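Sequence, please.
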C-alpha cells in the first residue's frame, strides 16, 4: 500500500432508501478502514451541490441513476475520479431492450423478446402478438430494471391475460418488455480491468424459484453460488471469453459482469445482460469471482481504486 493512498478521502455515493446500497457502503468503508484510508458517505445532492470534495468516488447508488449512467455522467462532468464505467457504457447496458438488440447485432444469442409501447391494440390483439413471438413460459421484465426488481414469471395464456389487464398502462408506457424464459443453468462471468485476467465462472443454483428474482438475489438460503462452475471446459472457456469480449465491445473500462443461461440440451449460451455496475457487497458475485482468482478481498477494492485514479490521470 502506497503511503500516498492513506492521504486520500474516498467518497461513497449511497442510496439510503435501498438496503443493498447501504450494505455495500458499509462493506467498502470497513475495507478502507483496515488500511487507514478515510471515507465519507455522499448522496446525489452532495455531488450536485459541489459542497463535498473527495479524491475518488465509489458509486453504490444502485438503480436507474447509479446503474444507468446518470451518476457516471455527473461525476465525469465535474472531473471527479470514480470507480465505474462511462456514461455511454452504462446507459447502453441499462436499457435491456437496446442491449438485447446490440447482442444480436454482434452475433450473440439472447432470449427472444417482445417490446411494443403505445401499441394501441385491444388487449386480446396485444396478447396474440406476444404469443406469436414468444412461447410460454415467459418473463415480464422492466426495460430499465436493476437487481431483478419487478420481474414477473408468466406460465400460460391465463396468467398473461391477467398481467396485461393489471399492468397494461406499464406495457404501453414502455416500462415492461416480455422475454422468453429458457430453462437452463445460470452462469455468470466478470471482467475487471484492474485485475486484467479472465475471472472464474460462477453458477447460480436456485433452491426453489424458477428464476432469480430480487427476493432470491438478496435473501440468504434461496440460492447457492458455485465457483468455479462445474460445466464442461469448452463451455467454461466460452463463458469467460464472451464476458471479456462484451466488456470490450461495449466500451467498459472498469468492471462488468455478464449473466447467461446455458441450455444443456442444445449446448447454446444465451446472454441475459451485461451489468456495468455490479454489486459490491461482501456476498456479491464480482468480489466472489475475484476472491476465487486469488485476489485478496480487501485488496480487490484497493486495486479498483488504484486503477480508477490512474485512468483519471490519462
Amino acid at each position: 500500500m502506497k503511503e500516498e493512498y492513506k492521504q486520500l478521502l474516498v467518497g461513497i455515493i449511497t442510496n439510503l432508501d435501498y438496503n443493498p446500497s447501504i450494505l455495500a457502503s458499509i462493506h467498502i468503508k470497513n475495507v478502507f478502514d483496515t488500511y487507514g484510508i478515510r471515507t465519507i458517505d455522499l448522496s446525489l445532492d452532495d455531488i450536485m451541490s459541489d459542497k463535498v470534495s473527495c479524491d475518488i468516488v465509489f458509486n453504490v447508488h444502485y438503480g436507474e441513476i447509479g446503474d444507468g449512467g446518470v451518476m457516471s455522467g455527473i461525476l465525469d462532468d465535474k472531473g471527479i475520479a470514480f470507480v465505474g464505467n462511462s456514461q455511454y457504457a452504462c446507459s447502453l447496458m441499462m436499457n435491456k431492450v437496446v442491449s438485447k438488440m446490440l447482442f444480436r447485432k454482434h452475433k450473440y444469442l439472447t432470449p427472444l423478446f417482445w417490446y411494443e409501447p403505445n401499441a394501441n391494440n385491444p388487449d386480446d390483439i396485444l396478447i396474440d402478438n406476444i404469443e406469436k413471438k414468444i412461447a410460454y413460459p415467459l418473463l415480464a421484465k422492466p426495460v430499465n430494471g436493476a437487481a431483478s426488481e419487478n420481474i414477473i414469471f408468466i406460465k400460460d395464456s391465463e396468467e398473461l391475460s391477467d398481467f396485461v389487464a393489471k399492468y397494461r398502462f406499464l406495457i404501453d408506457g414502455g416500462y415492461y418488455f416480455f422475454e422468453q424464459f429458457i430453462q437452463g443453468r445460470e452462469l455468470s462471468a466478470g471482467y475487471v480491468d484492474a485485475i486484467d485476467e479472465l475471472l472464474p465462472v460462477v453458477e447460480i443454483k436456485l433452491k426453489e424459484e424458477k428464476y432469480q428474482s430480487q427476493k432470491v438475489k438478496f435473501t440468504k438460503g434461496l440460492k447457492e453460488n458455485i465457483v468455479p462452475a462445474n460445466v464442461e471446459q469448452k463451455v467454461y472457456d466460452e463463458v469467460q471469453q464472451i464476458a471479456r469480449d462484451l466488456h470490450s465491445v461495449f466500451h467498459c473500462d472498469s468492471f462488468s459482469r455478464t449473466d447467461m443461461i446455458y441450455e444443456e440440451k442444445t449446448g447454446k449460451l444465451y446472454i441475459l445482460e451485461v451489468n456495468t455496475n455490479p454489486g459490491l457487497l461482501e456476498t456479491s458475485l464480482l468480489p466472489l469471482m475475484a476472491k476465487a482468482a486469488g485476489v485478496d478481498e480487501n485488496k480487490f477494492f484497493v486495486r479498483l481504486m488504484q486503477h480508477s485514479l490512474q485512468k483519471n490521470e490519462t
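The chain has a mean pLDDT of 91.
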